Give the backbone structure.
Amino acid sequence: MNNTIYFDPTCDDDTRRRQLYEGQLVVYSPTANTLAFCEFARSLIKEAFGDLDPETAQYHLPVEEYARILGELKPKFIHHPESKQHLRNILGEFGCDPAETYFDVPKLRSSTSDNYLTSGIAYAWHPHRDTWYSAPQSQINWWIPIYELSTENGMAFHPQYWNRPVKNNSDGYNYYEWNKQHRGASVAQYVKEDPRPLPKPTEAIDLDPQIRLVGPVGSMVLFSAAQLHSSVPNTSGKTRFSIDFRTVHRGDLARKTGAPWVDERCTGSTIRDYLRATDLALLPDDIITMYDDETGHAGELVYDPNRT
Ligand SMILES: [Fe+2]
């Protein structure tokens, strides 16, 4: 196999999705729309931390207080109507057909330095595929740094595991059960340990060689949900803040196109989470039925993306 990192490609969205489904990575330089999204995120972050510099606030606050602040800030960003509008502007600018492209609400992520807070609301991600967490094979992840990145506080890709099975415990993960038990405000309480059953490798894996893409504020990295990736252990002395969101293409879902299945054994599906770029409608029922499984039939377990 070969790995390619495309920088500022001029191809259309169909070609780009195909490349991502083949395990390639795509990087874009900042644009007015991505920078506006970062500026909006920074305004909420600054408001949350008051007089403290958000990148170093962790050194001035008890960890419980820090987790409480993030516990308010993150849902506010996720559900803010302006966040969705910025996201839609970006999809339009980057050639996604808004009638065919559906997105999950954008997330605000943080990675604190020096093991200050690595569980719960600021989880330091072990290597994983999002497809171990019930994402469809055609999901694409978009990732944007909000402050200046360094190689010590970004994200790492492990493309040697593309299309190569990794022993993992995703068979214990059901998305509907997960939403019922673990989604919501309680995450901020996990400051010392994190009891949530998060699928991970159950065999030793080679973290190196790994790829760390360090772009400027407002740059974007696109990758397949099946790409193995992890948080870089942050030793930079600064908290990293980033935005990420996920997209799916209705036509690809209907055709069952996407990255190859490798080692995913989770149940349930995130298929009900995506909102159409034109009008925020959910995916049509025929698509949901294709991706649902028998675990989705207990109606109360199904996540409602409009719930706060
Ligand atoms: Fe992930």
Notes: The chain has a mean pLDDT of 91. The radius of gyration is 18 Å. The helical segments are 13-21, 32-49, 63-79, 81-93, 175-182, 250-255, 285-291.
